[in-house]
Amino acid sequence: MAGQPIRVVIADDEPLIRAGIRMILISDPDIEVVGEAADGRAAVEAARAHAADVVLLDIQMPVLDGLSALPELRRAAPAARVIVLTTFGERENVLRALEHGGAGFLLKDTAPAELIRAVRAAAAGDAYLSPAATRHVVERLATGREAARSEQARVRVAALSEKERGVLAVLGEGLSNADAGRRLHMSEATVKTYVSRILAKLDCENRVQAALLARDAGL
């Protein structure tokens, strides 16, 4: 609801990383860290118990790793948006997380301002594609799978109108609604309407999945 802080759960098995993320997030008066977890199972419970808006989820954790926790978390706290925390050495895991409905990902050495932007974007319903890392990782990951997926992706994208394909193409670049509007000479509200329509037509849960589909289709 308007005026209420964004409720965040931090899930990472390293106490120092959790503490650092907490310090960054609580510097923003609109963000509240409502829970922490040191393993995937605890992350699922914390997200459910605290009605989290956003969960920052590490991949490498004991008991239940982040990839295994993600589908359980989405069932236990369906309103929570999940941002995966990763390193460049975990690229394949990142793609799997995005395909299973993660709202984006951040590198663990992300700048504080970008971390806050990502949390705000996720809470607003947008997937956060890091300009510094996500585009690069998605492109690298998609390379080995494009041949198998491209035809299916092109068939799905063919159901879109020309304007919808144009909007989908800029989603593949990781642009925000505002930046997409400037690129396409549309209002931000119009872009948002197009994005909702595109997600429905393509049966995509979020912008990240649509962006991956755009890349597979060669847009």
From TrEMBL:
Residues 7-123 form the Response regulatory domain. Keywords: DNA-binding, Phosphoprotein, Transcription, Transcription regulation. The modification 4-aspartylphosphate is found at D58. Residues 153-218 form the HTH luxR-type domain. It comes from the Bacteria. SMART domains: HTH_LUXR, REC. The keyword Transcription applies. CDD domains: LuxR_C_like (cd06170), REC_NarL-like (cd17535). Gene3D superfamilies: 3.40.50.2300. This is Response regulator transcription factor.
